[in-house]
Amino acid sequence: MIEIAINGACGRMGSRIAALVFEDSELKLVAALERPGHQSLGKDVGLVAGCGDTGIIITTAFNAHADVLIDFSSPESAIAIGEICAKKNVAVVVGATGLNPQQHEKMQHFSRLIPCLVSPNMSVGVNVLFNLVAQVAKMVGKEFDIEIIETHHRFKKDSPSGTALRLAEKVCEATGRKMDEDVVYGRSGITGERPLNEIGIHAVRSGDVIGDHTVIFGSLGERIEITHRAHTRDTFVRGAIRAAKFIAKKPPGMYSMSDVLQIQP
Ligand SMILES: NC(=O)C1=CN([C@@H]2O[C@H](COP(=O)(O)OP(=O)(O)OC[C@H]3O[C@@H](n4cnc5c(N)ncnc54)[C@H](OP(=O)(O)O)[C@@H]3O)[C@@H](O)[C@H]2O)C=CC1
Ligand SMILES: O=C(O)C1=N[C@H](C(=O)O)C[C@H](O)C1
Question: Which residues bind (S)-2,3,4,5-tetrahydrodipicolinate (predicted)?
Fold first, then answer.
Protein backbone atom coordinates (compact mmCIF):
# COMPACT_ATOMS: atom_id res chain seq x y z
CA MET A 1 0.00 0.00 0.00
CA ILE A 2 1.33 3.46 -0.90
CA GLU A 3 0.41 6.12 1.66
CA ILE A 4 -0.72 9.40 0.07
CA ALA A 5 -1.01 12.88 1.57
CA ILE A 6 -2.70 15.73 -0.34
CA ASN A 7 -1.93 19.45 -0.08
CA GLY A 8 -4.72 21.76 -1.26
CA ALA A 9 -7.13 18.93 -0.52
CA CYS A 10 -10.32 21.01 -0.78
CA GLY A 11 -9.53 22.55 -4.17
CA ARG A 12 -10.94 21.59 -7.58
CA MET A 13 -8.01 19.22 -8.13
CA GLY A 14 -7.27 18.26 -4.53
CA SER A 15 -10.80 17.07 -3.81
CA ARG A 16 -10.83 14.83 -6.93
CA ILE A 17 -7.39 13.47 -5.95
CA ALA A 18 -8.86 12.62 -2.52
CA ALA A 19 -11.84 10.81 -4.08
CA LEU A 20 -9.76 8.79 -6.57
CA VAL A 21 -7.02 7.94 -4.05
CA PHE A 22 -9.71 6.76 -1.61
CA GLU A 23 -11.16 4.44 -4.29
CA ASP A 24 -7.76 3.01 -5.34
CA SER A 25 -6.94 -0.37 -3.75
CA GLU A 26 -3.15 0.21 -4.12
CA LEU A 27 -3.29 3.52 -2.24
CA LYS A 28 -4.10 4.64 1.28
CA LEU A 29 -5.15 8.23 1.95
CA VAL A 30 -3.32 9.36 5.11
CA ALA A 31 -3.51 13.18 5.19
CA ALA A 32 -5.55 16.04 3.72
CA LEU A 33 -3.92 19.44 4.16
CA GLU A 34 -5.36 22.90 3.68
CA ARG A 35 -4.35 26.49 4.37
CA PRO A 36 -4.76 27.99 7.83
CA GLY A 37 -8.26 29.45 8.25
CA HIS A 38 -9.87 27.28 5.56
CA GLN A 39 -13.58 26.77 6.25
CA SER A 40 -13.32 22.96 5.91
CA LEU A 41 -10.60 22.42 8.54
CA GLY A 42 -11.73 19.73 11.00
CA LYS A 43 -14.12 18.07 8.52
CA ASP A 44 -13.68 14.63 6.96
CA VAL A 45 -12.13 15.20 3.50
CA GLY A 46 -14.69 12.75 2.09
CA LEU A 47 -17.43 15.29 2.79
CA VAL A 48 -15.68 17.85 0.55
CA ALA A 49 -14.69 15.24 -2.04
CA GLY A 50 -18.15 13.67 -2.13
CA CYS A 51 -16.92 10.13 -1.47
CA GLY A 52 -18.36 9.53 2.01
CA ASP A 53 -16.45 9.15 5.27
CA THR A 54 -12.75 8.51 4.78
CA GLY A 55 -11.67 8.97 8.40
CA ILE A 56 -9.16 11.59 7.22
CA ILE A 57 -9.70 14.99 8.81
CA ILE A 58 -8.62 18.13 6.97
CA THR A 59 -5.77 19.83 8.88
CA THR A 60 -3.00 22.36 8.38
CA ALA A 61 -0.28 20.25 10.02
CA PHE A 62 1.45 17.42 8.16
CA ASN A 63 1.95 14.99 11.06
CA ALA A 64 1.01 11.69 9.39
CA HIS A 65 3.47 9.18 7.97
CA ALA A 66 3.23 9.18 4.14
CA ASP A 67 5.14 7.81 1.15
CA VAL A 68 4.07 10.51 -1.34
CA LEU A 69 2.50 13.95 -1.04
CA ILE A 70 0.49 15.24 -4.01
CA ASP A 71 0.26 19.04 -4.20
CA PHE A 72 -2.30 21.04 -6.16
CA SER A 73 -2.29 24.25 -4.11
CA SER A 74 -0.32 27.40 -5.01
CA PRO A 75 3.37 28.05 -5.82
CA GLU A 76 4.14 29.36 -2.30
CA SER A 77 2.37 26.48 -0.61
CA ALA A 78 3.99 23.91 -2.93
CA ILE A 79 7.44 25.16 -1.88
CA ALA A 80 6.53 25.26 1.82
CA ILE A 81 5.19 21.69 1.73
CA GLY A 82 8.14 20.56 -0.45
CA GLU A 83 10.50 21.73 2.29
CA ILE A 84 8.54 19.76 4.90
CA CYS A 85 8.56 16.68 2.62
CA ALA A 86 12.33 16.97 2.20
CA LYS A 87 12.71 16.96 6.01
CA LYS A 88 10.22 14.08 6.48
CA ASN A 89 11.65 12.04 3.58
CA VAL A 90 8.34 12.01 1.70
CA ALA A 91 8.31 11.97 -2.14
CA VAL A 92 6.42 14.86 -3.74
CA VAL A 93 4.30 15.28 -6.89
CA VAL A 94 3.68 18.98 -7.62
CA GLY A 95 0.90 19.93 -10.03
CA ALA A 96 0.64 23.56 -8.91
CA THR A 97 1.61 25.96 -11.72
CA GLY A 98 2.95 29.51 -11.72
CA LEU A 99 6.23 28.67 -9.94
CA ASN A 100 8.89 31.33 -10.59
CA PRO A 101 12.52 30.43 -11.44
CA GLN A 102 13.60 30.69 -7.77
CA GLN A 103 10.79 28.33 -6.75
CA HIS A 104 11.77 25.86 -9.50
CA GLU A 105 15.35 26.08 -8.19
CA LYS A 106 14.11 25.20 -4.69
CA MET A 107 12.31 22.14 -6.08
CA GLN A 108 15.57 21.11 -7.77
CA HIS A 109 17.26 21.44 -4.38
CA PHE A 110 14.61 19.23 -2.69
CA SER A 111 15.08 16.65 -5.47
CA ARG A 112 18.61 16.01 -4.17
CA LEU A 113 16.99 14.75 -0.96
CA ILE A 114 13.69 13.16 -2.06
CA PRO A 115 12.02 11.95 -5.29
CA CYS A 116 10.23 14.94 -6.89
CA LEU A 117 8.01 15.28 -9.94
CA VAL A 118 6.88 18.76 -10.99
CA SER A 119 4.66 18.96 -14.05
CA PRO A 120 2.30 21.68 -15.32
CA ASN A 121 0.10 19.08 -16.95
CA MET A 122 -0.38 15.46 -15.88
CA SER A 123 -2.54 14.37 -18.83
CA VAL A 124 -1.28 11.81 -21.34
CA GLY A 125 -2.51 13.93 -24.25
CA VAL A 126 -0.65 17.10 -23.28
CA ASN A 127 2.56 15.16 -22.67
CA VAL A 128 2.22 13.74 -26.20
CA LEU A 129 1.52 17.31 -27.40
CA PHE A 130 4.81 18.53 -25.84
CA ASN A 131 6.72 16.07 -28.05
CA LEU A 132 4.58 16.68 -31.14
CA VAL A 133 4.99 20.44 -30.96
CA ALA A 134 8.77 20.15 -30.66
CA GLN A 135 8.87 17.87 -33.70
CA VAL A 136 6.56 20.06 -35.82
CA ALA A 137 8.49 23.22 -34.85
CA LYS A 138 11.69 21.57 -36.10
CA MET A 139 10.06 20.27 -39.28
CA VAL A 140 8.36 23.50 -40.44
CA GLY A 141 11.54 25.56 -40.14
CA LYS A 142 11.85 29.33 -39.70
CA GLU A 143 9.11 30.44 -42.14
CA PHE A 144 6.19 29.44 -39.89
CA ASP A 145 4.84 31.76 -37.18
CA ILE A 146 4.26 29.95 -33.88
CA GLU A 147 1.42 31.09 -31.63
CA ILE A 148 0.12 29.38 -28.47
CA ILE A 149 -3.43 29.93 -27.23
CA GLU A 150 -4.68 28.58 -23.91
CA THR A 151 -8.24 28.77 -22.57
CA HIS A 152 -9.17 28.11 -18.93
CA HIS A 153 -11.98 28.68 -16.45
CA ARG A 154 -12.52 32.11 -14.90
CA PHE A 155 -11.18 30.97 -11.49
CA LYS A 156 -7.64 30.23 -12.69
CA LYS A 157 -5.13 32.39 -10.82
CA ASP A 158 -1.98 32.19 -13.00
CA SER A 159 -1.55 33.35 -16.60
CA PRO A 160 -0.43 32.13 -18.97
CA SER A 161 -0.97 28.51 -18.01
CA GLY A 162 2.02 26.42 -16.96
CA THR A 163 1.27 24.19 -19.93
CA ALA A 164 1.45 27.09 -22.42
CA LEU A 165 4.81 28.11 -20.97
CA ARG A 166 6.10 24.53 -21.21
CA LEU A 167 4.91 24.38 -24.87
CA ALA A 168 6.90 27.54 -25.58
CA GLU A 169 9.94 26.03 -23.82
CA LYS A 170 9.61 22.94 -26.02
CA VAL A 171 9.58 25.13 -29.15
CA CYS A 172 12.64 27.03 -27.88
CA GLU A 173 14.56 23.81 -27.12
CA ALA A 174 13.71 22.43 -30.58
CA THR A 175 14.47 25.55 -32.63
CA GLY A 176 17.05 27.58 -30.70
CA ARG A 177 14.58 30.38 -29.89
CA LYS A 178 14.92 31.96 -26.41
CA MET A 179 12.13 32.28 -23.81
CA ASP A 180 13.40 35.67 -22.58
CA GLU A 181 13.97 37.15 -26.06
CA ASP A 182 11.41 35.61 -28.41
CA VAL A 183 8.23 35.13 -26.38
CA VAL A 184 5.52 37.84 -26.35
CA TYR A 185 2.51 37.67 -24.05
CA GLY A 186 -0.50 39.03 -25.98
CA ARG A 187 -0.22 42.06 -28.26
CA SER A 188 -1.65 45.56 -28.11
CA GLY A 189 -0.98 48.87 -29.89
CA ILE A 190 1.28 49.51 -32.89
CA THR A 191 3.45 46.46 -32.40
CA GLY A 192 4.87 46.43 -35.93
CA GLU A 193 5.25 43.47 -38.22
CA ARG A 194 5.68 40.12 -36.59
CA PRO A 195 9.34 39.02 -36.32
CA LEU A 196 9.79 35.48 -37.66
CA ASN A 197 11.30 34.16 -34.43
CA GLU A 198 8.49 35.40 -32.21
CA ILE A 199 6.36 33.00 -30.16
CA GLY A 200 3.05 34.57 -29.14
CA ILE A 201 1.27 33.29 -26.01
CA HIS A 202 -2.37 34.23 -25.44
CA ALA A 203 -4.41 33.46 -22.31
CA VAL A 204 -8.22 33.30 -22.62
CA ARG A 205 -10.36 33.05 -19.46
CA SER A 206 -13.94 31.88 -19.96
CA GLY A 207 -16.58 30.27 -17.76
CA ASP A 208 -15.82 26.71 -16.74
CA VAL A 209 -13.39 25.60 -19.47
CA ILE A 210 -11.21 22.89 -17.90
CA GLY A 211 -8.16 23.44 -20.11
CA ASP A 212 -7.60 23.85 -23.87
CA HIS A 213 -4.24 24.41 -25.57
CA THR A 214 -3.74 25.17 -29.27
CA VAL A 215 -0.46 25.69 -31.08
CA ILE A 216 -0.74 27.37 -34.49
CA PHE A 217 2.07 27.04 -37.03
CA GLY A 218 1.17 29.59 -39.71
CA SER A 219 2.79 30.48 -43.01
CA LEU A 220 1.73 32.21 -46.24
CA GLY A 221 -1.06 30.15 -47.76
CA GLU A 222 -1.44 27.53 -45.03
CA ARG A 223 -1.40 26.73 -41.33
CA ILE A 224 -1.25 23.76 -38.98
CA GLU A 225 -3.25 23.88 -35.75
CA ILE A 226 -2.74 21.28 -33.03
CA THR A 227 -5.22 21.33 -30.16
CA HIS A 228 -5.59 19.44 -26.91
CA ARG A 229 -8.79 19.75 -24.88
CA ALA A 230 -9.25 18.28 -21.41
CA HIS A 231 -12.84 17.07 -20.93
CA THR A 232 -12.55 16.44 -17.19
CA ARG A 233 -10.11 17.28 -14.38
CA ASP A 234 -9.97 13.55 -13.68
CA THR A 235 -7.59 13.22 -16.63
CA PHE A 236 -5.03 15.30 -14.65
CA VAL A 237 -5.92 13.44 -11.45
CA ARG A 238 -5.28 10.04 -13.02
CA GLY A 239 -1.91 11.30 -14.28
CA ALA A 240 -0.98 12.62 -10.83
CA ILE A 241 -1.89 9.26 -9.27
CA ARG A 242 0.23 7.41 -11.84
CA ALA A 243 3.06 9.81 -11.02
CA ALA A 244 2.69 9.15 -7.28
CA LYS A 245 2.80 5.38 -7.81
CA PHE A 246 5.86 5.82 -10.08
CA ILE A 247 7.98 7.89 -7.69
CA ALA A 248 6.90 6.18 -4.45
CA LYS A 249 9.87 3.79 -4.38
CA LYS A 250 12.35 5.77 -6.49
CA PRO A 251 15.62 7.24 -5.21
CA PRO A 252 15.88 11.03 -4.80
CA GLY A 253 15.86 12.91 -8.10
CA MET A 254 13.74 15.06 -10.39
CA TYR A 255 11.34 12.92 -12.46
CA SER A 256 9.05 13.95 -15.32
CA MET A 257 5.72 12.82 -16.75
CA SER A 258 7.71 11.47 -19.73
CA ASP A 259 9.41 9.10 -17.27
CA VAL A 260 6.02 8.07 -15.88
CA LEU A 261 4.17 7.72 -19.19
CA GLN A 262 7.21 6.47 -21.14
CA ILE A 263 6.42 8.71 -24.09
CA GLN A 264 9.04 8.25 -26.80
CA PRO A 265 9.60 11.17 -29.19
N1 LIG B 1 -0.42 19.88 -13.35
C2 LIG B 1 -1.68 19.69 -13.75
O3 LIG B 1 -2.00 18.71 -14.47
C4 LIG B 1 -2.72 20.66 -13.31
C5 LIG B 1 -2.35 21.74 -12.56
N6 LIG B 1 -3.29 22.56 -12.01
C7 LIG B 1 -2.80 23.59 -11.11
O8 LIG B 1 -3.07 23.15 -9.78
C9 LIG B 1 -3.26 24.30 -8.93
C10 LIG B 1 -4.58 24.16 -8.20
O11 LIG B 1 -5.64 24.23 -9.14
P12 LIG B 1 -7.16 24.14 -8.66
O13 LIG B 1 -7.38 22.88 -7.90
O14 LIG B 1 -8.00 24.45 -9.84
O15 LIG B 1 -7.19 25.39 -7.65
P16 LIG B 1 -8.08 25.60 -6.35
O17 LIG B 1 -7.95 27.05 -5.99
O18 LIG B 1 -9.44 25.03 -6.55
O19 LIG B 1 -7.34 24.68 -5.27
C20 LIG B 1 -6.19 25.05 -4.57
C21 LIG B 1 -6.40 24.64 -3.13
O22 LIG B 1 -5.21 24.85 -2.40
C23 LIG B 1 -5.56 25.57 -1.23
N24 LIG B 1 -4.45 26.29 -0.65
C25 LIG B 1 -4.07 27.57 -0.85
N26 LIG B 1 -3.02 27.87 -0.05
C27 LIG B 1 -2.74 26.75 0.66
C28 LIG B 1 -1.79 26.45 1.68
N29 LIG B 1 -0.91 27.36 2.12
N30 LIG B 1 -1.78 25.21 2.21
C31 LIG B 1 -2.66 24.27 1.79
N32 LIG B 1 -3.61 24.51 0.86
C33 LIG B 1 -3.63 25.73 0.29
C34 LIG B 1 -6.70 26.46 -1.67
O35 LIG B 1 -7.43 27.00 -0.58
P36 LIG B 1 -8.26 28.38 -0.84
O37 LIG B 1 -9.17 28.12 -2.00
O38 LIG B 1 -9.00 28.60 0.40
O39 LIG B 1 -7.22 29.41 -1.14
C40 LIG B 1 -7.51 25.47 -2.48
O41 LIG B 1 -8.32 24.66 -1.67
C42 LIG B 1 -3.15 25.50 -9.85
O43 LIG B 1 -1.83 26.00 -9.78
C44 LIG B 1 -3.43 24.94 -11.24
O45 LIG B 1 -2.87 25.69 -12.27
C46 LIG B 1 -4.62 22.36 -12.22
C47 LIG B 1 -5.04 21.32 -12.99
C48 LIG B 1 -4.13 20.39 -13.62
O1 LIG C 1 -5.60 25.76 -13.54
C2 LIG C 1 -6.01 24.80 -14.23
O3 LIG C 1 -7.19 24.43 -14.18
C4 LIG C 1 -5.06 24.09 -15.09
N5 LIG C 1 -3.81 24.43 -15.02
C6 LIG C 1 -2.73 23.80 -15.67
C7 LIG C 1 -1.81 24.82 -16.33
O8 LIG C 1 -1.66 25.93 -15.83
O9 LIG C 1 -1.19 24.47 -17.33
C10 LIG C 1 -3.09 22.63 -16.52
C11 LIG C 1 -4.51 22.47 -16.92
O12 LIG C 1 -4.70 22.93 -18.23
C13 LIG C 1 -5.53 23.00 -15.95
Answer: 153, 162-163
